[in-house]
Amino acid sequence: MATYEGKTKVDTGHLIRVVIPKQYSFDIHIACLIELIANSLDAKSSVIQINLDQQQGILEVSDDGSGMNKQLFEEYHDITSPKVAGSGIGFAGQGAKLALNFCSKVVSETLSQSYKGYSEWRLEGKEAPYQIYETQTLSLHHFGTKVTLYLDDKSKNFYTSDLIEQVLKEHYFPLLDEGLLRIYMGKSPILVDEKRALTTYRPIYEKGLKFVVNGKQIIQQPLQSMLENQKEVSITVFTRAKARGFFGLGKDGIEETLQGIAICSFGKVIDRTWFRKEPREKQRIAGWIEAPYLIEAVTTDKCGFQKGNKTWEGFFRKAQAEFTKWLDEIGLSEKPAERKPDFSNLEREINSILRNLPELTFFGTRAQRDVAIPDETGERRELGEGTQKVRGTMGGETRGEGLSVYPGDELGQAPTIKPGSDVSATPYQRTIRGGVQISSALRDDIEKEAWFDGETIFLNESHPAYQRAKKERFDNYHLLKSAVLSLIEFKLEKDPEPSYEKVFELSQKFFRLWGEQ
Known about the structure:
Blueprint lengths: L3 E3 L5 H8 L8 H15 L4 E7 L4 E6 L6 H7 L17 H6 L3 E9 L4 E6 L8 E5 L9 E8 L9 H12 L5 H7 L6 E3 L2 E2 L12 E4 L2 E2 L9 E11 L2 E11 L9 E6 L2 E6 L11 E6 L19 H21 L13 H11 L6 H4 L1 E18 L9 E2 L2 E2 L21 E15 L2 E5 L8 E3 L3 E5 L3 H8 L3 H19 L6 H17 L1
Parallel strand pairs: 2-10, 14-16, 21-23
Antiparallel strand pairs: 1-6, 2-3, 3-7, 4-5, 4-7, 5-6, 8-9, 10-11, 12-13, 13-16, 14-15, 17-20, 18-19, 22-23
């Protein structure tokens, strides 16, 4: 007999069928599996077992983690998750709630030092009733949690062993990688060559971790063993290393699921990116960066970062600068046009308009700040966070590295040295952002007319539209249009609520100002 029965008073059916699934950008069957695994990882499990009986329509996900106490197990069945955002990669009960959409029932068992029990949960119309049975479990006989999904007739054939492996490799590949897993265990530094190695990670999964699907352990060849021309990466925030990883070039072809730089938190792949660059041989580029502190910027579906989040944007700019340097070093940067046109007039024209367009003012604005450069003859002064690192100047303007390197800092402040007092330094005024820059590229391998990486607009002179515009002698208008649309695209990528109406509105405002000017 059930120890406790419960159901929510709100329209739970609507929340489970409509509201919660909308938070995910992919099939809820996949989302459910990702969430169940994330909860097992948050429980510090060392073994996660996934068993599928396709004929019976039963999927089990069990772990040997810490289990739940009485309060957590009751909250697990609440429609609102008790987990605080940023405290881990899972949301307690979210996987089970998603499963209610395609299961006749969901059985959850848990065993911890202070509690033992199981529950049966199902969705009936507007309600999601559940029964909790305390002091007993059905098949779980060790500390941990086990969730069993009894799939409905429509979903019995959805899951396969191959699909489960594919989901693991796509979303949790660092934890399947023999080399990277040792880093997460705190037993190995990030080693690029024998002469140089980064500091050993603080362990995240100290006991190790195994994924077992129908009795078979899923493990992958170390990514680093497939790469050459590797570069180690360390991202700092206020002089403290907060993220580490590497870039590399595949010796042979890299499988599609590994292409790009995987940005991870606690071993979960959140995004794969080329940092808004368009390098040649993209299919050979792979890498990994683990950034636990970015967990606070992760979207609900755990497959992206929140638009406009300052922590994510600060990280992105730093990592992009490192990626750009590496591409330059190995000769895979955006290929410049053989004849480099002079875009100075176009730059001035665009930046002058941007300064009068409120929605895009940031791109065209010049900002100045005192920059303290340490030297022996300077005055004694205290240097704290926020002194600008200057690579070089052109007419008093800095360009290139050092732009916006702290989360939430739009002006680009980077410490030249560690904070301290009694340092001899001389203040200099520098323009740390002088509007957008324009360059050209010959890229017949991509379909974009232009792209913006956050600092430079690259105009693709190989694009058929440009070739025709040039032939018919309206190439200047084409370049202007392409440049502006690339800026608008960049702007809307950061907009929490982008829309095509905003694209038209910004475009019309820009060209009205251009016409009046």
